[in-house]
C-alpha cells in the first residue's frame, strides 16, 4: 500500500451514536461509487495532523451491496496516540480524507454450515457488513453482542430493525455474560466462530473453542492493535542508507515513512503480516506487539512487524 | 506418463490420536481396522476417557476380520458397529454427521477408494484438514472419472482402463478430485484411434 493508491473521499455525515463512538459516512470525492468489498473488510484512513500523519485501520460497516458510500465507526480511545482523537475532534462534514482500498483479513468461510458471530463493543463493526452478506444467503447465523451498558450499544436500532431474530444482546451493566462454554460446546459440525472486540474477549473465545475441541480452521478473530508507546530508539535502513529516530509515541512504521521510505502494509494493526521486515543486525531486544509471528519466530528475532512492534536497543539495522 | 508431481494427489500419514477433539469418529475398512486399533491403544494410554466418546464404524471388506472385530469388541467404546458392505457404512456415517457437534475428529483407515468416498461426505459437512486424519492401507485400486462421459469406473488396477459407460480407453491420471472422490481418466488414443500404450497393472 502506498499513497498513490489511495482514494479521496468526502465526509458526508458524522453522527455521535454512543458516548464514545462516532459514525462516519464517506462518499467518493470525485463522484461515482466506491470499490466493491466483502463483509469483514477494513480500510486505512490517512489523517494529516499538524505534527504527523496518522493511518488507522477501520472496518467497513456499510452494506457490501451499497457502494454509494462507505461507513465506519470510530471509538474514541482513552490512550489515543492521536488517530481516534483526530477523527472525533478535527474531522467535519464536507472534509476530504484519503483512504486505502478495502482489504479483507476477516472473511466469512464460504462453505460453513453455520456462523456464530461474537462482538464486544466497537468490535461490532465488521459484523455489520458481514450480516448484510449473511442475510442474503441461506446459511444459519447468530450474533452475540456484548457491551458495557445499553447506551454503549452502537448500531443497535439498525440491528434490531434488520436482524431481530438473530441477535442476542448482553449488557455488563445488567451482569449479562455470554455463556461461552454453553454456546461453543453445542454447535453443529461445520460451524465457524468469529470474534471481534477487546483482547480479553478474543482470548476467551479462542480458549473456550479449543477446549470444546474446535480446530483452529473454524476459529476466526480480528483485533487491530494500536501501536503501543515505548522508549525512543534508533534504526538504520540498510538499503535506503538512512538513519531514523523513533519517538516514544510514534510507531516504527510511521517513523520510517516520515523519513521518506515506504513500507508495504495492509492493516497497520499487526494482523496481516504484509509489513514483515528482516532484521539484519540487533544489539538489544525486539518488542513484538503483533498477532502474526509465531512465538518461535518472535524468539528468533530475525523479523519484525514495524506497524506495531518496537525495539529496546543500542542499534537496529533493517532490510529496507 | 503425464502423471508425475500432481498436487491434487492425496497424501496420507499414519493415524495418531488427537485428544484435543471432544468426540472421535472412526471409519475402518479391511486392514484399516488395525490402524484404528493402534490409535485406540494410544488413547487408552493417554486419555482413556476419550474411548467413551468414540464411535467406530467398520466394514471387513474381503479380508477375514474376526480377530479385528473381537479386539474392537473388547474396548469400552461409545459405539462399535460392523457393516457387511461399504455403502451402508457410508450412509450411516452421513447420518452420524448430520447430528455431530463441533469438536468431532474423523479418522479414516482403509483402501484409498474407501477413504475418498468418506472424505467426499466429510467435505459436505465442511470438515477441514485439521479435523480429519486418514491412513491408507490395502488396495491402491482407483475410482476413475471419465472426463468425456462423466461416468465413474470403480476398482481400477491398471494404468489404462476402458470406461464402464462410453467404452473409451482412458489414461488414469494422478489428478484427483475430492468432490468426485475419483482420479481423472482421459481418452488415451484420441490422436491415433486403437493405438494403446502397454496396459500394466499398477494400482495393486
Q: Which key features would you list for this structure?
A:
heterodimer, A: 320 residues, Elongation Factor Tu (Ef-tu), domain 3, Rossmann fold, Ubiquitin-like (UB roll), seven-stranded antiparallel β-sheet, five-stranded parallel β-sheet, 17 strands, 18% helix, globular, B: 204 residues, alpha/beta, 2 domains, five-stranded mixed β-sheet
Structure overview:
The complex is a heterodimer of chains A (320) and B (204). With 320 residues, chain A is an alpha/beta fold. Chain A has three domains: 3-104, Translation factors (Elongation Factor Tu (Ef-tu), domain 3, Beta Barrel), CATH 2.40.30; 114-222, Rossmann fold (3-Layer(aba) Sandwich), CATH 3.40.50; 233-318, Beta-grasp domain (Ubiquitin-like (UB roll), Roll). Helix content of chain A is 18%, strand content 33%. In chain A, the strands form three sheets. In chain A, strands 1, 2, 3, 4, 5, 6 and 7 form a seven-stranded antiparallel sheet that branches. In chain A, a hairpin with a 4-residue loop joins strand 3 and strand 4. The two termini of chain A are 15 Å apart. By secondary structure, chain B is α/β, with parallel strands linked by helices. Chain B has two domains: 23-136, Nucleotide-binding domain of ferredoxin-NADP reductase (FNR) module (Rossmann fold); 142-187, no CATH class. Chain B has a five-stranded parallel sheet, sandwiched between helices. In chain B, strands 7-6-10-9-8 form a five-stranded mixed sheet, with helices on one face. The two termini of chain B are 18 Å apart. Chain A binds chain B through residues 109, 111-113, 184-191, 210, 212-218, and chain B through 20-23, 97, 100-105, 125-131.
Amino acid at each position: 500500500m502506498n499513497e498513490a493508491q489511495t482514494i479521496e473521499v468526502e465526509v458526508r455525515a458524522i453522527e455521535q451514536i454512543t458516548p464514545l463512538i462516532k459514525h462516519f459516512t464517506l462518499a467518493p470525492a470525485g463522484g461515482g461509487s466506491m470499490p466493491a468489498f466483502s463483509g469483514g473488510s477494513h480500510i486505512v484512513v490517512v489523517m494529516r495532523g499538524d505534527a504527523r500523519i496518522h493511518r488507522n485501520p477501520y472496518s467497513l460497516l456499510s452494506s457490501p451491496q451499497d457502494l454509494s458510500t462507505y461507513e465506519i465507526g470510530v471509538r474514541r480511545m482513552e490512550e489515543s496516540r492521536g488517530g481516534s482523537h483526530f477523527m472525533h475532534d478535527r474531522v467535519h462534514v464536507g472534509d476530504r480524507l484519503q483512504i486505502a482500498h478495502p482489504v479483507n483479513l476477516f472473511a466469512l468461510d464460504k462453505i460453513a454450515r453455520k456462523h456464530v458471530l461474537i462482538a464486544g463493543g466497537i468490535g461490532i463493526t465488521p459484523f455489520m457488513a458481514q450480516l448484510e452478506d449473511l442475510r442474503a444467503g441461506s446459511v444459519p447465523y447468530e450474533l452475540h453482542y456484548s457491551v458495557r451498558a445499553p447506551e454503549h450499544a452502537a448500531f443497535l436500532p439498525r440491528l434490531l430493525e434488520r436482524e431481530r431474530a438473530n441477535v442476542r444482546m448482553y449488557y455488563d451493566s445488567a451482569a449479562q455474560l455470554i455463556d461461552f462454554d454453553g454456546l461453543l460446546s453445542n454447535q453443529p459440525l461445520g460451524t465457524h466462530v468469529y470474534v471481534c472486540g477487546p483482547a480479553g474477549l478474543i482470548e476467551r473465545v479462542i480458549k473456550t473453542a479449543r477446549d470444546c475441541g474446535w480446530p483452529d480452521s473454524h476459529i476466526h478473530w480480528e483485533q487491530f492493535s494500536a501501536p503501543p508507546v515505548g522508549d525512543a530508539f534508533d534504526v538504520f535502513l540498510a538499503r535506503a542508507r538512512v538513519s531514523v529516530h523513533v519517538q516514544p509515541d510514534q510507531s516504527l512504521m510511521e517513523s520510517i515513512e516520515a523519513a521518506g521510505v515506504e513500507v508495504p502494509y495492509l492493516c497497520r494493526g499487526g494482523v496481516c503480516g504484509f509489513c514483515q521486515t528482516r532484521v539484519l543486525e540487533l544489539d538489544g531486544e525486539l518488542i513484538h506487539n503483533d498477532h502474526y509471528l509465531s512465538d518461535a519466530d518472535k524468539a528468533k528475532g530475525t523479523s519484525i512487524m514495524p506497524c506495531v512492534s518496537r525495539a529496546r536497543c543500542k542499534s537496529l539495522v533493517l532490510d529496507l | 506418463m503425464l502423471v508425475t508431481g500432481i498436487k491434487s494427489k492425496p497424501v496420507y500419514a499414519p493415524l495418531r490420536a488427537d485428544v484435543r477433539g471432544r468426540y472421535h469418529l472412526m471409519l475402518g475398512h479391511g486392514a484399516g481396522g488395525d490402524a484404528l486399533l493402534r490409535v485406540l491403544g494410544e488413547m487408552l494410554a493417554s486419555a482413556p476417557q476419550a474411548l467413551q466418546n468414540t464411535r467406530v464404524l467398520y466394514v471387513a471388506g474381503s479380508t477375514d476380520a474376526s480377530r479385528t472385530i473381537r479386539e474392537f469388541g473388547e474396548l469400552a467404546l461409545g459405539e462399535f458397529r460392523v457393516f457387511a458392505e461399504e455403502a451402508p457404512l457410508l450412509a450411516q456415517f452421513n447420518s452420524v454427521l448430520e447430528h455431530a457437534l463441533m469438536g468431532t475428529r474423523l479418522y479414516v483407515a482403509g483402501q484409498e477408494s474407501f477413504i475418498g468416498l468418506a472424505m467426499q461426505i466429510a467435505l459436505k459437512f465442511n470438515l477441514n484438514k485439521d479435523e480429519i486424519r486418514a491412513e491408507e492401507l490395502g488396495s491402491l485400486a482407483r475410482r476413475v472419472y471419465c472426463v468425456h462421459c462423466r461416468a465413474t469406473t470403480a476398482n481400477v488396477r491398471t494404468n489404462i482402463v476402458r470406461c464402464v459407460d462410453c467404452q473409451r480407453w482412458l489414461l488414469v491420471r494422478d489428478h484427483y478430485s475430492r468432490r468426485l472422490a475419483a482420479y481423472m481418466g482421459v481418452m488415451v488414443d484420441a490422436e491415433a484411434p486403437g493405438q494403446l500404450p502397454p496396459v500394466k497393472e499398477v494400482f495393486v
